[in-house]
């Protein structure tokens, strides 16, 4: 079998194919990316619509390209990684990440700080193998979220981000809590090694499944090489208990009887209603009635920044 290290050292493969979303974020990164790529002789393919990233990945793989960089926000990274999975190329291709989105959570979690920093890393950064999540048959890098925060996870205001840090999406979610119908679900989780399987049944405000992203404490990067999801289930509760900043910190910061934390590599969410549930996979919205999630351990070879911590 060809390893990533083997392909990395082949002189013929010492170049990158960049999949660029020119309209992500504030859409002011594209010119710089084109010019830095041209200086280095990298080919750039620009997405225009949903589906383009996967098409470009599939084309690159069939041409024998072994280094593909995603430039955009978390949605672009998501689509490139899922495209790699669909092209059955996760074993042969190394991923680079160039942060050009509104939220660049995945780039942040792997220590990639800016477009310029990312270009340096493409030349000389360390490659590590990270876990991926699979939701039915779709890969995800950061997280899979259902409930009141799913819709708002991609829409958080930057001012709120400054005030609340990584919990901002939760606060944004709380503002819509009055209109939110809780999810009536059953959640079955395989226990992490040595612990029992768990079943949770009830009305949930949010189900947060983190791969690279942590939802407890101050949030931020999770351990993304441990083969496990970090799962947080927030139970339906009276809005009066939630609508304070202090409560937000408390609910997500530690154990309360309204919040369940577990670690698992296999999870199934089943709705008790007829309607589908909306899930945010790295910020991309999907609908499912039932959804199974599993970890694919160390499936993705990706170039990380110096700040990346294998066990945060
Ligand atoms: N040229 C384009 N114009 C508009 N949408 C695009 C274009 N190319 C791709 N898309 C769509 O944009 C979404 C990805 O956006 P992405 O997440 O990268 O940026 P963002 O939303 O600005 O950033 P973030 O998710 O980090 O907040 C995908 O759903 C993709 O299908």
Automatic annotation (TrEMBL):
It comes from Halogeometricum limi. Pfam families: DAGK_cat, YegS_C. It comes from the Archaea. Its cofactor is Mg(2+). PANTHER family: LIPID KINASE YEGS (PTHR12358:SF106), SPHINGOSINE KINASE (PTHR12358). The keyword Zinc does not apply. SUPFAM superfamilies: NAD kinase/diacylglycerol kinase-like (SSF111331). Keywords: ATP-binding, Kinase, Lipid biosynthesis, Lipid metabolism, Magnesium, Metal-binding, Nucleotide-binding, Phospholipid biosynthesis, Phospholipid metabolism, Transferase. One of its GO terms (cellular component) is plasma membrane. Residues 11-139 form the DAGKc domain. GO terms for biological process: phospholipid biosynthetic process. One of its GO terms (molecular function) is metal ion binding. Signal peptide: none annotated. InterPro entries: ATP-NAD_kinase_N (IPR017438), Diacylglycerol/lipid_kinase (IPR005218), Diacylglycerol_kinase_cat_dom (IPR001206), Lipid_Phosphate_FormReg (IPR050187), NAD/diacylglycerol_kinase_sf (IPR016064), YegS/DAGK_C (IPR045540). This is Lipid kinase, YegS/Rv2252/BmrU family.
